[in-house]
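Schema walk-through. Below, the input block comes first and the output block second. Nothing else is stored per chain. Lengths vary across the set, and this one has 223 residues.
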Amino acid sequence: MRAIFRLFRRWRHQRVFNKVKPGDGHALKSYRLKDLFTRSLFYTKLREDDDVVHTYAVNVNYFSEASTTELYRDDKHYATSELPAAFPVPGGVIEVATSTYGLKRMHYVANDDQEYPLYPDRKSTEGLRMRLDTRFPRASSAIGVTAIVMLLVSLMLGLPQLAAIISQIPFFADNFGSFDSPLVLPDWMNVPLLIVGTLSAIERALMLRNHWLIDMETAWWDE
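--- output ---
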């Protein structure tokens, strides 16, 4: 099974590699306060064949016209790719993927299939969240547990209502019949539920934590 998974990952990487374009060498812009809600910046250090350690940085701008991410090597633009992306680098691949609520993958995958998350810029939203996790682990753990509970509640209360709405679409109604949700909440409850679920999903994205079941309801409209 592990060998099959490895072959599948390599096949997927080969497909994504076709989207990688060489960079133009422009300098990496430093992270600023105005970038907190529009940009993510992560780093990793890799030793190359010349036995010199080089710094690789991945920049994601959430409001760019094209859904792309950029790779920098020692602060110089090295490559760009459409998302989701897989950049071939010494000893492995850097995988980058986003969701509606932020990042869901920012990892270096070595050739032996070991995975290592990149570390965020200290000034970024992700960096501030991880510093909170380091300095106040109990408070950070409580925030994380609360986010999971809120997402599960959102899933249990929202999914039946969503299924009922979808079942009213003529194609589904004609082929599978309609479905009546056993629980129908008023708008004044659904709106706060959506807001809380969204904030919880953002919190999980800041910590690069994603699970298909827990995030099912909030990830419904993800690409």
